[in-house]
Amino acid sequence: MSLITTLARLEAVRAGRAQARATVLHRHLSDRPLAFVPLTTAGEAGAPLGAMVGTDRDAPRLLVVAQPRDRDLRFAFLADLAEAVLPYVESYADGVEAEERKETDPETGRKVPVEVELCTDAPQLLVPSAAGVEFVRLLGRSMRFRRTAEDDPDTPYPAPARVPLLGRWLTHYGERSRVPGSSLLLPMTGLLSRHWATGQSHVEDQHLGALLAWIDPPEGESGAEAALRAETGRGPDGLLCCPPAGPATDPAFDNRLLAPATARYDAARAAGSPAALSRAEAEIRDLLASQLRPSWDALWRGADLLRTLPEGARVADRWKRDRWSYTGHRDRVRAGEPPQPKRDDAVAAAQKLAVRETAQARLDAQEALDDPLVMAERRVAGEAFAGRVTEVEMAYSDAKVPRPRPLVTVLTEDRPQLAESAKVYRALAGGKTQTGEFVSYAPGGPVVRLTGGMGRGKVPEEGSVPQEGDHVCWTLFEHAPRGGPELPDAEAVPWTHGGPPAAVAEAPDPVTDEDFV
Amino acid sequence: MTGAEASTEPLGGAGASAGALGAAAPGPGAAAARATAAILRDTLHGAHRGVVVDSPPGAGKSTLVVRAARELAAAGRPLMIVAQTNAQVDDLVDRLATAEPDLPVGRLHSSDPNPYDPALDQHPAVVTSARAAELTGLDVVVSTAAKWAHTKGVEPWGHAIVDEAYQMRSDALLAVAGLFERALFVGDPGQLDPFSVVGAEQWAGLAYDPSASAVSTLLAHNPELPQHRLPVSWRLPASAAPLVSAAFYPYTPFRSGTGHGDRRLSFGVRSDGSAADRVLDEAAESGWGLLELPARHTPRTDPEAVRAVALVVRRLLDRGGAASSERAEEPVPLTADRIAVGTAHRDQAAAVRAALADLGVPGVTVDTANRLQGREFDVTVVLHPLSGRPDATAFHLETGRLCVLASRHRHACVVVCRAGVTELLDDHPSTEPVQLGVTVKFPDGWEAMMSTLDQWSGHRVVWRP
């Protein structure tokens, strides 16, 4: 935790409400996100209990599994979920623009520009908390390998037609959410705690109700009191006033209300009474709605709070990468490619790790450049310095054709950790980056030799060299980090990593006695 | 890094004393020579595509790499060497060229400005280039893993040596392994593991987990490869080797190449009775010193502890230290370039540098454990990773971090730490989740912290500000 965040948390305790950690919004927030609040069954891994889903905050679609241990009902739920989610996901597939991209020509081996489609916007999924993201991933994994009757007419328990496709999309969104700075699938708790520091611990920040209580406490109440009430307050019926944002449910709710209602449902089914059955089902729907609705409303309230912040200047750049990710998966689905494999192979795993490390470095740099409060964190940590230019001395390089290498002295109170001839970077107007090199300390501050961003001529371009009195901010970190090296093809895995994959596909798990329990 | 700072131990042979070991056991020189011979036999004539060598701190790893490189070159086998940092590459090239001035060595470097140490230009047989194609045909080509990973369209090498293989990540090996047929992997399993700035839990337990070390992936896929171990540390003195071996290498013990009387640290100026002087006397006498500050929770750059570190270094120089060892007949004056300060965090290192500058002490190396890996000094002063902390995180408990800090010295090591670390450890048992399929490393950081502190408490000097 950075010093400034620690300070903000201390101030939050003293002030009784959350303090800003950012002055701009650092993630893309869609105009029309799809909110998804899932609930899971206690004690049964991956058995959904119900969900609220939709793009209209006033008209959520409620999906319920009356008996979660009945797999037919579970499939019916998943089929309904597919009908609620897929039309939204697919509605972005056809709005495209043309983009030029460099691709390797298979014949010449050269990089040639190719015109490709890029979706102009992408669907965005919002869930209440990090556990919700994990549940999306779990749902994706449980669905994408299911076989439909169309895939295989002989499959004993065919899945509804669109369920495997939903599994593939949820898997893609779950995997994308692991890329730092991506915005396709976001947990509301993560979004809020990125932008506000509360007076409670990180673990407590995972509770959406408590987090909102700190950020926007009710009139006349401190954040700490409101958060405590959100976490532990129970009504006369012994139920939590603010039910957990899922997917886990409140055990008191499970025991006192849900278990008896499910028992009534089972009894009605056993008795074969349609009226009693629909009555029992309606009762379960009402119960789950009572647990889901507060989280649903909290999620939209969180989105409202976030929308009070203006979007950071470089957020669109990262959202464009998300759009590429969406477009790429759309193309794979359209091309009829098989679902994502159970496990990444060696090359895919290394590629993903490289992409995420680059994305993390890019995110760290872009957030700092977009937001003076984040830059302040980096300045306190000695990774950047800002100040007024006190002297500019023109100098040239020793090359045959001398290049301008002006020396700029910066008056600053920051204490950057500058090693000898350390590289420094400065954002120029127009999105370009100027490079420099630390020379020495003059009285007042460091001297930087400009090494780039001045054009190609003998005379630096207009406005590319700071003037005396200008306020400048140099960073010790790169602004546009480079990606990792090219990796071998999956078919050419070297002997150190197990060699090329076997020609035959992985055998299915052997059938054991336990499969027939 | 220059050659002078790095270890230059003999690889066995005569010269080293048998020390306190019994007459029946072979001397350390003989044991090391036998291990080296077996490694070279497997490398040059073995049936396997790979050979793995585990080397404890200062066991002559670099000397082994140079020797293996020369023998492979002499046998007419084109060799590429993969090191992890540019400093390591420059150091290796310098050693190779110094050991055999006629050997054609290529230094493959990046296209950044000042990509390599200009000192290499004084070796006539060393060729430098940013393009691998310009270096083909040379007996040995050396570069970093990062640069090799961008090398394409060249004929693969018959042989490779991968240096610091335990600090190389599995994905880095994946990117370069297509460039060679066979390889010798050399490294220290006790030092810092490679890390990733993003979570990699989803691949934990897979044999090719990209965030794991290159050696663990290699051995998971090729369990039949011969594994060797260098048995003698030429760097660590007889006072340090047993502690480091027991605390960090419990199942692969090693010993010191020198005996208890072989190294001595003495001062020209007598102690003034201050805590800094007393801890220096203790360290000179026993090889270890623990300067204990009063218990307190502090920010990372604890001003009091930082000042204590700087003061110890200042007194070390002021008192005219001299080091006698098997390397020279006469005691060698202890100069600033033979002293290092090790910390856990970069801001701590920066604070110590500033404090040393205030005391007018230039030329002392101050760096984090990550950057001190592979380096060697006469005396080190260590700011304990847990000093003044309210919590013990996985970062601070990492075994390799403490191991690096406690194994850089030839003569003595002074640890500066606030009291209360044992209580802190009691309050923070290791809680890292157990991942299926991942080999559990022994010892864990918690155990290593406890056992080293237990030993050091016998050399404690209490500091009263």
From TrEMBL, chain A:
Q: Where is the composition biased (Low complexity)?
A: 500-510
Q: Where is this region: Disordered?
A: 483-517
Its protein name is Uncharacterized protein
Instruction: Tell me the organism.
Output: Streptomyces pathocidini
From TrEMBL, chain B:
Start and end of every DNA2/NAM7 helicase-like C-terminal domain? 306-418
Does the record bear Nucleotide-binding in its keywords? yes
Q: Which Pfam families match?
A: AAA_12
- Does the entry feature the keyword Cytoplasm, yes or no? no
**Which InterPro entries does the UniProt entry name for this protein?**
Coronavir_polyprotein_1ab, DNA2/NAM7-like_C, P-loop_NTPase
What are the UniProt keywords, alphabetically?
Answer: ATP-binding, Helicase, Hydrolase, Nucleotide-binding
Q: Which domain of life is it from?
A: Bacteria
Q: Where is the signal peptide?
A: none
Please identify the protein, giving its name as recorded. AAA domain-containing protein
Which species is listed as the source?
Streptomyces pathocidini
